[in-house]
Write a structure and sequence with these properties.
The structure holds two protein chains of two kinds. Chain A is mainly alpha-helical. Chain A is 33% helix and 8% strand. A two-stranded antiparallel ribbon of chain A has the order 1-4. In chain A, strands 2-3 form a two-stranded antiparallel sheet. Chain B is an alpha/beta fold. The longest helix of chain B has 74 residues. In chain B, strands 1-13-12-16-14-15 form a six-stranded mixed β-sheet, sandwiched between helices. A four-stranded antiparallel β-sheet of chain B has the order 2-7-6-4, with no helix packed on it. Classes of the chains: A mainly alpha, B alpha/beta. The interface between A and B is large, with 35 and 49 residues. Chain A: The complex is composed of six subunits: RnfA, RnfB, RnfC, RnfD, RnfE and RnfG. Chain A: Part of a membrane-bound complex that couples electron transfer with translocation of ions across the membrane.
């Protein structure tokens, strides 16, 4: 008889916990791998495809699945370092041998040469080029990620990648001080 | 609260942590009153002299401006206008080096003073108490006032705060060495400052206003106390001289004992700090209507002869200030904007004074030595003791060096006010503040990048979504479209069948389309032509007679001219023409009989048929008439005769064409509804044209002559090509080949008429014409293959024979080129026809 009660007690406990776990699995379901989101925030989001994946998120997913972390030239060494910290692997130099600290660029359309073919508009991953057929196109500098993807499709080669202009906001102090020495 | 106010009123002053005591160096610049300078040669007014957005430019290059006239209009967040500091001419508006350590160019208005110094119309407020809160804020806003203590925060934003303000704190501390601008302003304009304070009190209604002045400015304290006597809510509080007690948060701590929490602003704890200079500007703006166009600047340093304070117009180049005060630079002279602690070395002295410029320091090498080499940190913690914000400068320094930005954030780097006290006390001469500044800039940049990356991600995803949606839509459209098409096609097929049926039901009365065409043609022929057949026949007979006479006459004339060959040919042509005219007359008669037969069948249809018949009859009549006209006209050269012959032939052909064409249309309609409709329309137009052409070829040329422009020429070429296509189809389906001959003739004639045009004008038209001609040839070939060389062909061949020869003399008279082209085209057409005949 005692054995019977014990079985019932244990069985009902198992059932209750099972239900709780089942509910939790549905209620607190994680849609995607959280590590992918973390990697994605580290990546520079230029959506340039230089890593070989169509955008930053696919590369983040690939890294989560064990791909190399040094395939992001726009991110430079800083990104590789952060990814290495996050993934717990050794930081490596960039796979393509690109410079460690990449110069930020934005696309610039030489507007009088533009023939209005819309090919660059189709290539832009972030819709940063505005224009219409047979109309001049131009780049929204604030939205341009400097991914280079629009340069290649241009039939008249009127797109340049220019380094981002320094403004007062992005300007950095040189390391020289204005110390005051005692004049006695 | 009451207790706190009581304490303050009793003169209690709290203390701040850290702080240093650098030598004041203020006495040398307080010996003289604030000087007025002569007008500079030019003023460089930067559009951005404050924190926030630029105003919108409302003046243009070459414009004359008056002193105090607004140059920009506030737009967007935190934007304040700038005003013309004196009257003069705007010589340029371009980016100029700005008052920033980088001297990065900033859009500036360059004014050449005219020396008049004429004020614009000022609107001083007589009774400020009567102004509403918003009106007063607007006056401050439009006057372009921004914090003059150093940060340049728009004053109207502060004045318009929605938070309850308990303490209005007036910053008259001026703790940085050398600077005495506020000191001198208080000494000379204490009343104005108090008036400004009262305006602020009106706006903010604080419980208490505290003016904090360092105890090294006894004159200023006395002046302010004197001026503030009448107002109980204003307290002048003397604070000990310690650097940096003039920092906003430090001053609040000193005067009220309260601390502004990290990351919040003084207004969050009911405090508002205003600089004395700003308050004076507010007073000027409200009570005198003068916008902010000048400020007190301390010009000091050992290389300056006349150290002191000056009223500097905004935009005055630093060089002008230095020159006016006597400047004898030393080698590698540095000129610092701001004080020795927080100021920055100017890359150039050709920079305009801005709203935040309180001091120009031109030190020699003794007073402000070049920084020595940075040595290793010895962990003496002097920096931590000196830090007024209770930070850990040496920790921050290491994190900054190793770029550990998250650690820097953890150690509250952004609470650093960059006062430079730590660097000042450092025995190892480590430029600590510079490290923090660089680190701050890096962190801000990273944050900006993070925000940008986030937006790029959003945009990328939005785009992906959009592309997917578009693709889906496209697929859906593809699915839906075929069904719709099949419906339309069914309808078209049914229509075509119906048409065919109606056609077979009644041959005489063709479809409505044919009727419409016929009607249109009939209209074209003109109303003066009567359908009465007998009259026409009589006329015709008479004309024939006349024509014969004229022909004989002409032949004689030609004989006189002695062109035997031509004479013969033209005689032949005339004979042919006569034969044709007869034929046409017969055809017309037949048509009328057909009309009478068909009439009883169906009222409507019969009417239509009648119309057609009438039209044909008319055409025929016209042709004959024409013949006579052409003949009777005293056109004594052969050309006219030949033309008449051709015209007659064409008129007849056109008459036949009307019938055949409708048939052709019926046949081709089911093949392609749209195409055929277009072709039919063109064919109709052609038929009309043919009729016209028959009347006079020169007329046709005239018609096409005004069609000078490219587009019409091209359109004509296309139309011709299409007409040919229609003709081709028709030729394939029916026996009579005349239409094709006709259209060939047309095609031949038209390009010719186009040729002179195109030679004058456009290449394209010529190309189109060439294509049209090529098509005409093709059509002729096919026709030749399909038919059994009827008499008409022979006729037209004869015509073609006759024409080139008869054209020769004409060419010398007329356009040579056109004639040659015509001759070549016709010769080719003939050849092709002959080839076709040979084959058949």
């Amino acid at each position: 008889m005692t054995l019977f009660y014990a079985l019932i007690a244990l069985g009902s406990l198992a059932l209750i916990f099972g239900l709780i776990l089942g509910f939790a699995a549905v209620r607190f379901r994680v849609e995607s791998n959280p590590i992918v989101d973390q990697i994605d925030t580290i990546l520079p989001q230029t959506q340039c495809g230089q890593c070989g994946y169509p955008g930053c998120r696919p590369y983040a997913e690939a890294i989560a699945n064990g791909d190399e972390i040094n395939k992001c030239p726009p991110g430079g060494e800083a990104t590789v370092k952060k990814l290495a910290d996050l993934m717990g692997v050794e930081a490596k130099p960039l796979a393509g041998g690109e410079q460690a600290d990449p110069v930020k660029t934005v696309a610039y359309i030489r507007e009088d040469e533009c023939i209005g073919c819309t090919k660059c508009i189709q290539a832009c991953p972030v819709d940063a080029i505005v224009g219409a057929t047979r109309q001049m196109h131009t780049v929204l500098i604030d939205e341009c990620t400097g991914c280079d993807l629009c340069v290649e499709p241009c039939p008249v080669d009127c797109i340049d990648m220019l380094p981002v202009k320094e403004t007062k906001q992005t300007w950095k102090w040189q390391l020289n001080a204005i110390p005051v020495t005692q004049v006695d | 609260m009451e207790k706190l106010i009581d304490q303050i009123k009793q003169g209690k002053v709290w203390s701040i942590p850290g702080g240093i005591h650098p030598p004041g160096q203020k006495l040398q610049s307080t010996t003289q009153a604030i000087a007025r300078l002569p007008l500079p040669d030019k003023l460089v007014v930067s559009l951005k002299q404050h924190i926030g957005a630029n105003g919108k430019l409302i003046v243009e290059k070459g414009q004359q401006v008056l002193k105090g006239q607004a140059l920009t209009k506030p737009s967007g967040n935190w934007s304040v206008p700038v005003h013309a500091p004196t009257s003069g001419l705007i010589s340029d508006i371009c980016p100029m080096p700005s008052a920033h350590p980088s001297a990065l160019p900033e859009l500036s208005v360059i004014i050449e003073p005219d020396g008049e110094d004429n004020w614009c119309e000022l609107n001083p407020v007589t009774d400020a108490k009567a102004l509403s809160h918003d009106e007063l804020v607007d006056v401050i806003h439009q006057s372009g006032i921004a914090g003059m203590g150093g940060a340049g925060f728009p004053t109207y934003v502060k004045a318009d705060t929605r938070k309850a303000i308990e303490f209005l704190i007036v910053n008259a501390v001026e703790c940085e060495p050398y600077i005495t601008a506020d000191d001198m302003l208080m000494r000379e304009h204490a009343d104005g400052i108090i008036a400004g304070i009262e305006l602020m009190q009106q706006l903010l209604s604080p419980q208490l206003t505290i003016i904090g002045i360092e105890d090294n400015k006894p004159d200023a304290i006395a002046a302010m106390e004197q001026a503030a006597q009448h107002n109980d809510s204003i307290i002048v509080q003397t604070v000990p001289t310690v650097y940096p007690s003039g920092g906003e948060k430090q001053l609040i701590k000193l005067l009220t004992g309260k601390e502004v929490p990290s990351g919040s602003i003084p207004a969050d704890i009911g405090m508002l700090v205003q600089n004395v200079g700003t308050l004076f500007a507010v007073n000027q703006a409200v009570h005198e209507g003068k916008p902010l166009i000048e400020r007190v600047v301390t010009v000091t340093g050992n290389t300056i002869h006349k150290q002191g304070n000056v009223w500097a117009l905004l935009g005055t180049e630093i060089k002008h200030l230095l020159d006016c005060q006597g400047f004898s630079p030393v080698p590698q002279q540095r000129v610092v904007m701001g004080g020795p602690m927080m100021g920055f070395t100017l890359p150039t002295v050709r920079i305009g004074v801005v709203k935040t410029t309180n001091c120009i320091l031109a030190p020699d090498h003794q007073e402000l030595a070049e920084p020595g080499d940075e040595k290793a940190c010895i962990r003496c913690s002097a920096c931590a003791d000196a830090c007024p914000a209770s930070l850990l400068p040496q920790q921050l320094q290491w994190f900054a060096k190793s770029k550990e930005y998250d650690k820097l954030n953890e150690h509250n780097l952004f609470d650093c006010i960059e006062c430079g006290a730590c660097a000042y006390v450092c025995p190892s001469e480590i430029p600590l503040v510079q490290y923090y500044r660089v680190a701050k800039a890096e962190i801000k940049e990273q944050q900006a990048e993070q925000i940008k990356a986030e937006r790029a991600k959003e945009r990328f995803e939005a785009r992906k979504e959009r592309l997917e949606r578009e693709q889906e839509e496209r697929q859906n459209r593809h699915k839906r479209k075929p069904a719709a098409k099949s419906d339309g096609e069914k309808q078209k097929v049914a229509d075509a069948l119906a048409r065919v049926k109606s056609k077979s039901d009644d041959k005489d009365s063709k479809s409505a389309v044919a009727a419409a065409i016929a009607r249109a043609k009939a209209k074209k022929q003109g109303a003066e032509l009567e359908p009465d057949n007998s009259e026409v026949a009589k006329e015709r007979a008479a004309r024939k007679e006349q024509a014969r006479k004229y022909k004989e006459q002409k032949a004689l004339e030609q004989g006189e001219e002695g062109v035997d060959k031509d004479d013969k040919k033209s005689a032949v042509a005339a004979a042919i023409a006569r034969a044709k005219a007869k034929k046409a007359a017969q055809a017309a008669e037949e048509n009328t009989s057909a009309e009478t037969d068909a009439a009883p069948k169906d009222d409507k249809k019969a009417a239509v048929a009648a119309a057609i018949a009438r039209a044909k009859a008319k055409k025929a009549a016209q042709a004959t008439e024409h013949q006579t006209e052409a003949d009777s006209a005293p056109v004594d050269d052969k050309k006219a005769a030949v033309a008449a012959a051709i015209a007659r032939a064409k008129a007849k052909k056109a008459a036949q064409a009307a019938e055949n064409q409708t048939e052709a249309e019926e046949d081709s309609a089911p093949v392609d509804d749209k195409k055929a409709a277009v072709a039919a329309a063109i064919a109709r137009a052609k038929a009309k044209k043919a009729a016209q052409a028959a009347e006079n070829q020169t007329e046709a040329e005239e018609d096409s002559a005004p069609v000078d422009d490219k587009k019409v020429a091209v359109a004509a070429a296309i139309a011709r090509a299409k007409a040919k296509k229609a003709a081709k189809e028709q030729a394939q389906s029916d026996d009579s080949s005349q239409q094709i001959n006709d259209s060939n003739d047309e095609a031949d004639a038209k390009p010719q008429s186009d040729v002179p045009e195109s030679s004058e004008d456009k290449k394209k038209a010529a190309v189109a014409a060439a294509i049209a001609r090529a098509k005409a040839k093709k059509a002729a070939k096919e026709q030749a293959q399909s038919d059994d060389s009827s008499q008409q062909i022979n006729d037209s061949n004869d015509e073609a024979d006759a024409k080139p020869q008869s054209d020769k003399p004409e060419s010398s008279e007329d356009k040579k080129k056109a004639a040659v082209a015509r001759a070549i085209a016709r010769a080719k057409a003939k050849k092709l026809q002959q080839e076709g005949n040979d084959k058949s």
